[in-house]
Amino acid sequence: MVELADKLVRPAAARETGRRGAVAAIAWRNLWRNRRRTWLSAGGIAFAVWMLVLSLSMQDGSFEIMIDNGSRLLLGHIQIQHPEYFDDSRLEFTVEEASPLAAAITASRGVVSVAPRLQSFALVSSGERSFGAQILGVDPVLEADWSTLPGMIGEGRYLEAPGEVVLGSILARNIGVAPGDEIVLLGTAREGGVAAVVAELVGTFDSGQTELDRSIVQIPIADFRSGWEMADDEVHALLVIAESVAMSETVARDLGSGEGWRALSWRALMPEAEQTIEMKAIGAYVFFALIAMIVTFSVVNTFMMTIFERTREFGMLMAIGMKPAAILVQLQLEAFWLSVLGVTVGLLMALAFIAPLEAFGMPLPADAGDLLSRYNMPDRMYPAFSYTAAWLAAGIMLIGTQLASLIPGMRIFRLRPVAALRAD
How many domains does the chain have? Predict the structure, then answer.
């Protein structure tokens, strides 16, 4: 009995599968009954997909440059900090035994450089003038290896030995000092005493950011430990530079947290940059939504004309027993093939346009060369193909096309076979 049931069921299932395949094939052929209209509609869908993918890919490339440049200036792609330091930057919230941890992180996949950092606030004085500033204790060799700040020295040079200090050009002007002058740093040490460091100003930097140029001072980390009474192997942060901004997200997740420390990515370190990215992305999505609406209305018009032109055909199909719902399914399949055609063409256009730029870069304006070299920015932008935009554009256009064909398609349920057969 089981074998007999299988013999009866399998041919029925095969017939059902064959019928569905035939309907899909008929829907595909129906698209080409009016080639010009099909290509115009598919072209509109392709343009919308191409526009979204291209704009977001270009944005991703520019954002990566912006984030990488900001990270390499001062903060790093990732920071390893005491779990409470980010919310409450007390001097005593440090990562202890930082050297073994730094060595382990350096050996991690995707990590290019790891540098120690101690930081506090102090008065920067010379003669009778004093200004408050943030004091950064850095390893000059490692800092020069990853940071762009040493390349922004306008007067003098960068740190090379203990007893030296560099600071922003605006702060130097406010205090009235120049390279070769003596600087006194006065702050509060770890145990509550006075932290005092006397150093020679060897250079001033000009980052182009007013807040940094008037508030940042760098000294060798050994001088910071001596002045602020810090232990030899403790830091407020280990700054991690990854192979790329995109890779830094993976590295931060892999590092996670440990005993007495946690990893913070650039998103936590630079919340303003993340907000800017989100706002610009929203703008791109709104622009795409407007284009998608225009394309959807054009598809509605396409299928409205299709229904008017094929009214007699639909009447004949209903007269021989085909249900209106089955006709509507066929129209939806036609809309599906139309959207697949448009999305495929759009993605291929976007890929063909972006792939060479992603490989070889897009040169920035020649007249910006001095500005780019001054602030250690690359002379080329490398757009990154946005797979998120590709999936989003494809999904929206597939759904939008289905809805666009459904609206005029509902007219089929009001058709009467006799009246439809007499239609002009």
Answer: 2
Residue 387 belongs to a domain = yes
Question: Are 281 and 411 members of one domain?
Answer: yes
pLDDT of residue 208 exceeding 90, the answer is no
- The dihedral sign for the CA sequence 173, 178, 181, 184: positive
What is the four-CA torsion angle of 184, 203, 113, 372, rounded to 10 degrees? 140
The 10s digit of each residue's pLDDT in 29-56 is 888 888 888 898 889 899 989 988 888 8
Tell which of 199, 226, 253 closes a domain: 226
Q: What is the domain extent for residue 39?
A: 26-67+275-421
In terms of domains, do 217 and 282 share one?
A: no
Q: What is the pLDDT of residues 91-108, one digit of tens each?
A: 999 998 889 999 999 998
Segment 69-91 mean pLDDT: 90
Q: Domain boundary residue among 226, 244, 264?
A: 226
Rounded CA-CA distance 241/117 in Å is: 13
Whether the pTM exceeds 0.85: the reply is no
- C-alpha 269, offset from chain centre: 15
Average pLDDT over residues 259-274: 88
